[in-house]
Amino acid sequence: MEIGYWLSSEEHASNDLVRYARQAEEIGFTFVQISDHYHPWIDRQGYSPFIWAVIGGIAQATERLQLQTAVTCPIMRIHPAIIAQAAATVATMMPGRFQLGVGTGENLNEHILGEHWPPIETRQAMLKEAIEVIRLLWQGGLESYSGHYYTVENARLYTLSDEPPPILIAASGSNSAELAGRVGDGLISTGPDAELVQAFEGAGGKGKPRYGKVAVCWAESEADARRTAYEIWPLAGLSGGALNTELALPSYFEQAVEMVTEDQVAERVICEADPDRYVAAIQEFEEAGFDHVSLHQIGPNQAGFFNFYQREVSPRLQNGK
Fold this sequence. Notes:
This protein is of the alpha/beta class and 321 residues long. Helix content is 45%, strand content 15%.
């Protein structure tokens, strides 16, 4: 099991994200995942930088750290031909260290150009075609593409890495997991769902990497942690699913979380400074078939979390306890 660090672009300023990535490398995290949004989920989170600029900073600030977008939506807000160029450029700046994580996106970020937000089945078909466009352009040379959703005319990427980066696909349901198994180089998910992994492997994903995520909030006291998690990430108390993909504005999410309680958030976010809780949560993903897990520290106290992880959690993981 490899342990990584989640870069929450909705919560932190651009230069801070670069700094946190460097610190994550220094204390032993092997990879980071960075969220790709146009809007934060709620206004209180406060940020949402253009992550391709941030990634350029991370490329220069780190030496060994693997980085993965988690995830980029290449179907509406940004044409897949542009994502192909952005990812190819990053791959030359971080040789062997970059992975393109993609998914079907959320209305929250993708509606901004005034296009109709399609149903999930259409978005999955668009994602499949977008991946075809990206991989075609990564072959080099002058390329054209005429598909159902995308057209590329006489395009050539001149900045390419020796080996194209892997493309991993986010999934929360069996159809997306099967798509990831068929056309992706790995799986990204947020819950320890063994059935999801089975669907992924059954569709061709066996032997490919599988990434999960654990939400935590370390603080000096459990009360402070619960309060911070509730203030910054009340979405943890929502049931998720279609709600997360269909709401169009941060203000809509703020309305949706009005009925969420602090106790509900604490049920889904580790809000206590017990390293065994962290280890148990990671082991739950391992038992479900995941081989990578990133830790998302909610709130501004990233330094306290880093110190706690290095002092209390990492030794237990290394000792297999």
